Amino acid sequence: MEVVSPQAVELSPMSVVTSANQEYIVEKEIGQGGFGNVYQVHGQDGDFALKLTKMWKFTPNERIEYAKRFRQEYEYARLIPGENIVKPYDYDVYQGNPFIVMDYCPNGSLRKRIGEQWDAPALKQLATGILKGLRNMHREGIIHRDLKPENVLFDAVENPKLADFGISASIRSRMTRRNILGQVKEVFASGVYSAPEQLDYARAFKVMGNTNDIYSFGAVMYETITKGEFPFGSFEDFQADIKAYEAKKRKGQWNKELLTDNSPEPVWNTIIERCLQFNPEDRYQQAEEILELLKAKNDSGSITNQEGLSDTMVLRVMNGDEIGRLYNLNNLVEFNQPDWQIQYNVFANWLNDYLKSDVRWHKDNLQVLTLGWFNPEEPFANSIGIAEHFSNYISRFHATLVYHTETKRWFIMDGQPVQMVNGILKLPLQINNSTNGTFVNSAPLQSMIKELQFNDIITLGDTTLKVVG
């Protein structure tokens, strides 16, 4: 995406911003940020919020990436079902500056309510709304990564909605810039709300997942219940000594007594303590687990894995450089199997010997597709080549899809068999695993094979693929 000569823009009441669809009349400014401002505007169907980027503040090279991210923000939010997400309705460019038109939430943000006393029903309503928003995001392979009171807004009927997807990305996304030492230069997070792994600069580009948002949810609820306190110390403490602050997170040294004294119900001590666990695997893995503790109705936004929707499996790009692209696995396998298929007997024997599965493989019931980075110089190196223009976290030979023709079931494994030369596998068979891992529903595959189900989310680098029928 190319952004050409954006003009410095100052909107005031009665300014008119025009999209391809309609005109919007500015009523007032309702928010400011380093990269954009938000305005209350009036359109054909009522009041909306309009977020306008300050593209003129970026260098020409930065404009390309930021414009792409901003467009992704619009695309992300369109994908997410449910009433607890700020919905986008329009996208266009004003004097070289992209803008998004979205829900207007007249009752402000949670930040303005920190310090108030929350009774048990009101607190449960707030938490349930946040969790349903997170649940529906995660089911589409998207994490927020910047959950904080400023990004929880209230609509006209006090329904909480999650906002600001400008730094949201797919599960385990690495929208980071790395310096010449290989360290993360840019980590999108607010430290007092961030999971410890988000600020581990050596690993930050590898560890984005559902549990990052679960941790932030715990920190937000702690602040809400304690009327403005943070579990591990103030923001000033964090700024003064990040290393010491993060050490408290590692050791679990947070003020449990203050939470106990202010909690309207004991369940909050249980919930927040588990949310704030240092190790991601020790936290709640899904928002549904907390909703169950709160006994929240699992509304129509619920989506479950379903078998048998179709005999055809399709991978839809949910995040990455080609959002919306479809890969029909059953069609691809007819024409795009790797050139080492003459040695499928070798691969079948390896599958039977090393990977646990309830099926038996042989060369006549095995079909294979390979996934990896799309190399323009070798466009047919993989059956499915994933384009990455702004990052390089997908390995050249990243993952393998295998189809069992007798049972019509698809499986996925990390890495690919090593070839001596094109078409000839190295013997004894070896698997070259990906550098950054392959994840299904945020869980790493490691040395295993997993059967794919409809609605599964596959993550390769900064790209997420959803299994659809």
TrEMBL record:
Q: Where is the Protein kinase domain?
A: 24-294
Which residues does the UniProt record annotate as the domain FHA? Answer: 369-445
User: One GO CC term of this entry?
Assistant: cytoplasm
Q: Which Pfam families does this chain map to?
A: FHA, Pkinase
* Keywords in alphabetical order: ATP-binding, Nucleotide-binding
- The entry marks the following residues as binding ATP, namely 51
Q: Which SUPFAM superfamilies match?
A: Protein kinase-like (PK-like), SMAD/FHA domain
**Domain of life here?**
Bacteria
Family annotation (PROSITE patterns):
FHA_DOMAIN, PROTEIN_KINASE_ATP, PROTEIN_KINASE_DOM, PROTEIN_KINASE_ST
* Record protein name field: Uncharacterized protein
Q: Which source organism?
A: Adhaeribacter aerolatus
